Amino acid sequence: MIRRLAAATSPTGVVTLVGLLNAVLFALMAFAHWVGWGGPDGLESSGMTPGQVTATSVFVVVVDLVCAFAAVSLVVLTRPLGRRWRYRLGAVLTVSAAVAVVRVAALGDVGRPVTLVDDVLDGAATGLGYVVALVGALLVADLVVAYEAQMRARTAAEVASARQVARLEAQEGVRRRLVADRLHGAVQNRLVLLAAGIDQVVERLEPDRPDDAAALRRIADQLAEVSERDVRALSHELFPTAVDVSVVRAVRTLLDRLPPSVAGALDLGPTYRDLVDHGTDDPIVLPDRLVVVDTVEEALTNALKHGRAHRVRVRLDVERCVAGDAPLWLVGVVRADGRGPSGHVVLGGLERLRSRLAARGGGLHLTGDERGSVLRFDLPLRTAASPEDTLPGDCVP
């Protein structure tokens, strides 16, 4: 309830709304009390016609409602929010007493003769009713103010956390690229130089010591294999080729590296294409690109290794979310023929990627049968224009 009130109106509006509700209920209770104490009967006994009794009863209701509205309006005009309760109680007591006196004076001895004591008791009861109604409204408004302050503090903490995460992710991307460049450049070059030096030694040993030369030749071949396969693969895992350009370019590079016997295709959904066509080179920030490309690469590897796939199709699109904090979500689907997982699906290497996606508010789901497999993943979209947006967790496209 407090959350809905905070979202629907301001704290002053809460005082007005709750105060009017309480005051109107009290006014109706006061009218019922007047009826119960024989107000209409007293009017009839005084010689009034039924029409006059009805008109007088309506007058009593109107007076009660007008006094209720007046009490709430006067308290709101004193601007009690943000002030000490000493001031608030003083304003409430003053307004309640004044309006109660006006009500007693307006109604007088309508329906029955009253004494001064009756007027005092009626005024005290009326004033107390106004006090309860107005203090209750102020308490609810305080709860709304406290809730809004808590939400502002929470939002500020989330924004600060998101900014810190964005900075750390940016630093991680820089480090990953630096290490990948050094592996691909300095380390691989040194391995190539070592292999070249061994080749020179082999050339000198071959005439006199062919067995030793052959052994060294095998070592040189192993160094070349490590340089070309292991170091290059590790460099690619740290920073996939073309991921700094765009996800589309990086995924196409992965598909181009598939064996000739495997047909690969990339489809872009209309919303994704629309973002790119309107000048966004890539609607995904670099840290999220790494997760997306790693997920696609793992899906392709599993499709070829376990499913013996001959056709794979990758689809990327952006879907709009009608609820939650993130208006846009990246949705990726990798379909492969061959043999898909059946029964209880063991994610294996995909479990690590699902954890990485979940840490960013996304998810991953793998299904399959004898006709193939379908891997679906989603990720709240943080564009380059707003990389520090808070990540949502309550909306899935």
TrEMBL record:
GO terms for MF: kinase activity
Keyword Lyase carried by entry: no
UniProtKB keywords: Kinase, Membrane, Transferase, Transmembrane, Transmembrane helix, Two-component regulatory system
Annotated TM spans: 12-35, 55-77, 89-108, 128-147
InterPro entries reported for this sequence: HATPase_C_sf, Sensor_HK_TwoCompSys
GO biological process: phosphorelay signal transduction system
Magnesium as UniProt keyword: no
Protein name: Signal transduction histidine kinase subgroup 3 dimerisation and phosphoacceptor domain-containing protein
